[in-house]
Design goal:
By secondary structure, this protein is mainly α. The chain is built from four helices and no strands.
Length: 103
């Protein structure tokens, strides 16, 4: 009998009541803000984010062990959007993924 191994993932988040004394105060403040955040993709202003700010964000991401790729131009933005749509369709076609979502 063939067995399928479902993908496993987990996320460890520090709970506020168990906050590590070594956790920086700004990280604790960001964690506490999670329930209050919202997303708005509309333009706030009619200006581009300064290159120095984008460089700072990339450096900050690298400090956290991540990377930030800046997407410029509608052609690349549309290509990334299409990849996201394809990925969404593939995931939703997988019954194991849908089961994990429902859990």
């Amino acid at each position: 009998m063939e067995s399928r191994v479902r993908g496993l993932s987990f996320l460890t988040l520090p709970l506020p009541c168990f906050r590590d004394a070594t956790q920086p105060a700004d990280e604790h403040m960001l964690f506490e803000a999670i329930p209050h955040r919202h997303t708005n993709r509309r333009d706030y202003e009619e200006w581009d984010i300064p290159k120095s700010m984008l460089s700072w964000l990339q450096a900050d991401a690298a400090t956290e062990g991540a990377w930030l790729h800046i997407i410029k131009g509608d052609t690349v933005r549309n290509a990334v959007a299409e990849l996201v749509v394809r990925g969404d369709h593939l995931q939703m076609a997988d019954p194991n993924f849908r089961h994990d979502l429902a859990a």
